[in-house]
Design goal:
It is a single chain. The chain is an alpha/beta fold. The protein has helices spanning 13-19, 67-73, 93-103, 119-126, 144-147, 155-161, 172-179, and strands at 7-10, 25-28, 50-57, 78-85, 110-114, 131-134, 165-168. The strands form 2 sheets. A 5-stranded parallel β-sheet has the order 5-4-3-6-7, with helices on both faces. The chain has a two-stranded parallel ribbon with strand order 1-2. Helix 3 (93-103) links the parallel strand 4 and strand 5 (110-114).
């Protein structure tokens, strides 16, 4: 096979084992931002304010509807800003989040920026936040890609490179990579 002699790059070992077990020469390279994309040191958060940010693929698995009722339970100074795209099958998800925010009286604390075409502009929005959300479903739904996102998802690395606190799902792989490593 061609892969026996190829050099393969994967975001984590599990993806390498699944995707090309016959590839003998491989490197694990996380999906990190370039150094030039890292933000300057951040000022401390403004007392009484907390800006929470999410970017990427917007659907129930990565941006659960439970975020809006949780937002309603939090103090007035907590805001949620979302940027990204709605994949096929999730086109109504943002409308549902907006409707929940309106119903719960927190519409003014929930902002959807839409798709931001330029990465530099996306990271500029990211730098305005205090906390970055990087959620994955807790249960394995049979999606090999979704089940093996540690190292592959750029979200946590973008947030960390720009000084945001990181909030991840309590999955063993994510906990080990980020929380247990002291990056939470």
């Amino acid at each position: 096979s061609v892969l026996r002699n190829a050099f393969c790059i994967w975001p984590n070992l599990r993806r390498a084992e699944i995707g090309a077990p016959e590839c003998r020469s491989r490197a694990i390279v996380w999906n990190c931002p370039a150094r030039r994309e890292a933000g300057p040191p951040r000022d401390p958060a403004t007392p009484g304010k907390l800006e929470v940010f999410f970017h990427g693929s917007i659907g129930p698995a990565r941006l659960p509807a439970t975020l809006i009722p949780a937002l309603a339970l939090l103090p007035e100074g907590v805001r949620l800003t979302v940027a990204g795209y709605l994949p096929v099958g999730c086109r109504d998800h943002i409308d549902g989040l907006r409707a929940d925010a309106r119903r719960l009286g927190v519409e003014h604390r929930f902002t959807y920026l839409g798709e931001i075409p330029l990465r530099a502009d996306l990271l500029a929005h990211c730098r305005q936040a205090d906390v970055g959300l990087a959620f994955m479903p807790m249960e394995d739904r049979g999606d090999i890609n979704e089940s093996n996102m540690t190292g592959a998802s750029n979200k946590p690395f973008d947030y960390l490179a720009n000084g945001l606190a990181l909030l991840v799902s309590n999955r063993p792989d994510w906990r080990e990579m980020f929380a247990d490593a002291g990056l939470d």
